């Protein structure tokens, strides 16, 4: 089985290459016709010029030759490569220029947060940690997805359910978008928690057992998605579009509170039918 222990040097090299190759020279204000281009994206020379570093420095970074860029260089590379905020944070994590979290990964819900999840009824709500393990949930969330109490603890993970559970994986109408967003979120967590063996084991399991996950993981998209819509075709209630919001408690920053609500009148009626049944 492929190892998914974080090799920061190799991952930094691959990430910089993929971000460079996706850019068009016109995206960064460079004339497109300098020379005939044999490969897509920017050349290393152009990245070096935009970041204010030497070409040799960029080459050594992309060849994983053990460099550790300073904060200033990381910021310059992020600007040169036009990284989105989540990608920028990922780059800083890879280069270890952000202080590591002192918090241990949460494996159980903080009691006040578990009570809050229950009190949020009738809104579907759940509590997860950074690797999307389910720590607490209310009755409405189980009616919406699956009765988590019937699952082994190792299977109480939102990403595993979305990709591997025979019932849940068929719920989402736009399954690829939902799954891709989950993979991009997991990649950000992977860089921020390099010593989390449970997380690396989960990534290895999903890569070995799901070809889609393996392909999307290799694309190295990074996005922390805390808000949005998901539409599902529920076997009992029909089509439901949910708005979800993810909140991070100050007291327990590794425990994320996910709250859902109907996005429209039809979905509200569908939820009412589901909970009344």
TrEMBL record:
Residues 41-88 form the HTH cro/C1-type domain. It comes from the Bacteria. InterPro entries: Cro/C1-type_HTH, Lambda_DNA-bd_dom_sf, MLTR_LBD. SMART domains: HTH_XRE (SM00530). Pfam families: HTH_31, MLTR_LBD. CDD domains: HTH_XRE. PANTHER family: BLL4672 PROTEIN (PTHR35010:SF2), BLL4672 PROTEIN-RELATED (PTHR35010). This is Helix-turn-helix transcriptional regulator. It comes from Streptomyces doudnae.
